[in-house]
Structure to design on (755 residues):
């Protein structure tokens, strides 16, 4: 009931914000609606029990990327409130194609029986989490409500509460306690995400250098003329 | 109101994706195109996290979504640098004006 | 707030109380919804009280401190000899003012931007623990979340400056954006140091690890956390745009910076957001480095052992003793945060404002390398100790042992819970 109410609120905000981004011509207003949309996506992540991801969405997307985009708007605006209008014909065609695409997506989502398909996946990690983690999960939880003192000690329960920080961190270190324990270590270790994590780290460094190189202040032709006049 | 399930989240993801694609296709402002890309990536992210919650994939979906968020930030930084260069060369951010290579 | 009254979430508490009073089954849908809404409104009301009440005090304090530093009295007329009601009087004056939107402004964004800044600042209070267990949203990644939420305030400010249609506002917003985005980096790295020592992003855990004497506080954990506290406090001061880093609203250069065009209510909630953020960063500093809700002299442990868990039985799960202990913790934490805010005010009226290039140089050339160095050193410190003395700390029990030996402070016994869990 509560979850539904929250879901519908944030789903409407997300979709409404996204539509407003498309419909608006003014770039700064687009940025504003983008903030609304992305912020609501973060709220949806919280509803999906992905706390860390929601926080990352807020920090990186809303607080970082959108700020960067607004910077871009300011640095590239030739006048106040620049609007580069889309021609109406393009808008109509784009909207029509978009609607058709949406219909295709919606019909295909509706026609698939997700329950049956996910049944074919490898069984969900239901093995007990390590004893330490259980104790920690319970010690960290200052107040355990009556429901969770029962048998909710397995990994699924930890995930249910959105406490995925430690598991995400471990999986980035190449450890998958959920998978490895279940298979008893005999079938080899389930791969974590150590290599992708390292690649992304190096990638970020490359991007940092590359962006700084691309955006460095170049002398314009005008200023060179001025130098030569001197 | 029915129970919120996987389908509801996938619908939200689909709307975000379509809005992003239309935004990329119709906007002539370079920054607007970038915003479209962000919307597309977010639509994908909603799907990843929804699958991670409602199917037995466990954490994999969240991990991938986290990678997407981080790489999207990197993409935005580089794209913005490119947009600034474009502006320096053309004195506008209208992507339709970048047509020198058409011959 | 988790455990505001009892060792349960407030939602559970309300649900149980209602069901015991009215004989409605405790799992009925309407009852759960009512309990959820009641709990949500209680939390929001309490936090709003804090969010609105503290700035009123801080603005008065700012005027008084400024007055004393400049060898004058500050406000003396409204509300007795100390001018207690000065802020209220100011507030009433501000609300009466006309709500102007300049002709050049982008009206929608101009109207919405102050709310964006205020919401971001208010949302940070959601994950801020006021005392042991008194936290509206007990997220496991609370520390990460609060950094994220506080970083959103800059968006409201940029949009406000840009949509004003005034060059002063635009200059102010550009400076502000550059400054806040840059200072977030050293701030996050400095905040990471105690988080890494605690091995948790949960404020509750971090607070509990610093229980006992003040030598258990993270600021005294090793020499690098000691330096990291000052580094954090400097960057926090800059990130809430206080002097000497208040370039965005440099009165002598930019009229008033990003809020040049604002008036009345919208202008005043910008100030509300600023002063609340000052409290938020100070409270985070107090929790991460200065022992949180522990007073460090042992008074709270005495209170804890005397009262915690006593006085139960009025309502299920309610413990008067725990409540008293928590109130004491809240007073301690708010006092620490207020002292840090006082330091911020003191610095503002003592140091001259930096130039914008000096502000950026300070951040990018000094604070970022310093914080990176401190982080690395704090990582290597326990390793060095282990190598040399084969123990991770110089004196006393190691951090992990301490955290485990410290009883959780709820009235439900921790060992009992663990037994049930197994």
């Amino acid at each position: 009931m509560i979850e539904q109410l929250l879901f519908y609120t944030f789903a409407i905000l997300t979709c409404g914000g996204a539509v407003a981004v498309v419909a608006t011509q003014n770039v700064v207003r687009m940025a504003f609606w983008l903030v609304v949309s992305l912020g609501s996506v973060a709220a949806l992540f919280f509803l999906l029990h992905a706390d860390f991801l929601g926080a990352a969405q807020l920090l990186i997307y809303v607080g970082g990327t959108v700020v960067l985009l607004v910077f871009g708007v300011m640095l590239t605006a030739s006048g106040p409130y620049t609007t580069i209008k889309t021609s109406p014909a393009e808008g109509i065609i784009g909207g029509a194609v978009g609607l058709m695409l949406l219909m295709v997506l919606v019909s295909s989502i509706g026609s698939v029986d997700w329950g049956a398909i996910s049944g074919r996946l490898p069984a969900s990690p239901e093995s007990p989490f390590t004893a330490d983690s259980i104790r920690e999960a319970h010690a960290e939880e200052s107040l355990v409500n009556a429901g969770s003192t029962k048998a909710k000690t397995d990994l699924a329960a930890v995930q249910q509460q959105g406490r995925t920080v430690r598991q995400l961190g471990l999986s980035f270190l190449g450890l998958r306690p959920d998978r490895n324990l279940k298979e008893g270590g005999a079938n080899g270790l389930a791969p974590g995400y150590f290599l992708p994590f390292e690649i992304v780290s190096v990638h970020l460094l490359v991007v940092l250098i590359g962006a700084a190189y691309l955006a460095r202040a170049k002398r314009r032709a005008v200023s060179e003329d001025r130098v030569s006049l001197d | 109101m029915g129970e919120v399930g996987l389908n509801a989240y996938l619908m939200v993801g689909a709307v975000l994706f379509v809005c992003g694609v239309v935004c990329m296709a119709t906007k002539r402002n370079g920054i607007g195109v970038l915003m479209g890309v962000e919307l597309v990536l977010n639509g994908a992210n909603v799907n990843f996290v929804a699958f991670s919650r409602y199917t037995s994939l466990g954490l994999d979906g969240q991990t991938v979504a986290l990678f997407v968020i981080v790489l999207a930030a990197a993409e935005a930084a580089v794209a913005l640098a490119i947009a600034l260069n474009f502006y320096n060369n053309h004195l506008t951010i209208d992507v339709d004006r970048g047509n020198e290579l058409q011959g | 707030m988790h455990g505001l009254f009892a060792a349960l979430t407030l939602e559970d508490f309300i649900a149980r109380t209602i069901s015991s009073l009215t004989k409605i089954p405790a799992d009925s849908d309407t009852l759960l919804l009512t309990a959820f809404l009641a709990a949500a409104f209680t939390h929001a009301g309490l936090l709003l009280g804090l969010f609105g009440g503290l700035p009123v005090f801080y603005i008065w304090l700012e005027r008084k401190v400024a007055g004393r530093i400049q060898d004058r009295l500050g406000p003396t007329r409204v509300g007795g000899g100390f001018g207690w009601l000065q802020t209220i009087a100011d507030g009433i004056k501000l609300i009466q003012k006309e709500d102007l939107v300049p002709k050049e402004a982008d009206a929608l964004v101009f109207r919405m931007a102050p709310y964006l800044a205020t919401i971001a600042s208010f949302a940070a209070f959601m994950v801020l623990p006021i005392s042991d267990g008194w936290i509206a949203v007990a997220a496991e990644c609370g520390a990460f979340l609060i950094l994220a939420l506080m970083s959103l305030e800059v968006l409201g400010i940029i949009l406000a400056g840009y949509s004003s249609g005034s060059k002063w506002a635009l200059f102010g917003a550009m400076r502000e954006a550059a400054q806040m985005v840059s200072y977030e980096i050293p701030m996050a790295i400095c905040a990471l140091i105690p988080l890494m020592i605690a091995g948790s992003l949960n404020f509750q855990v971090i607070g509990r690890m610093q229980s006992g004497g003040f030598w258990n506080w993270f600021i005294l954990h090793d020499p690098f956390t000691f330096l990291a506290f000052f580094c954090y406090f400097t960057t926090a001061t800059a990130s809430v745009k206080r002097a000497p880093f208040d370039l965005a609203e440099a009165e002598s250069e930019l009229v008033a910076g990003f809020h040049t065009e604002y008036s009345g209510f919208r202008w005043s909630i910008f100030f509300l957001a600023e002063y609340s953020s000052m409290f938020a960063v100070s409270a985070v500093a107090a929790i991460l480095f200065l022992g949180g809700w522990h007073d460090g002299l042992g008074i709270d442990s005495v209170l804890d052992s005397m009262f915690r868990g006593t006085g139960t039985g009025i309502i299920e799960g309610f413990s008067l003793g725990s409540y008293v202990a928590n109130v004491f913790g809240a007073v301690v934490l708010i006092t620490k945060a207020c002292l840090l805010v006082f330091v911020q005010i003191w610095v503002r009226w003592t140091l001259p404002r930096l130039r914008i290039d000096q502000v950026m140089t300070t951040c990018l050339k000094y604070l970022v390398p310093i914080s990176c160095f401190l982080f690395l050193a704090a990582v290597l410190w326990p390793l060095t100790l282990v190598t040399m003395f084969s123990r991770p700390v110089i004196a006393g029990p190691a951090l992990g042992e301490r955290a485990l030996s410290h009883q959780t402070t709820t009235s439900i016994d921790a060992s009992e819970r663990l037994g049930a869990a197994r």
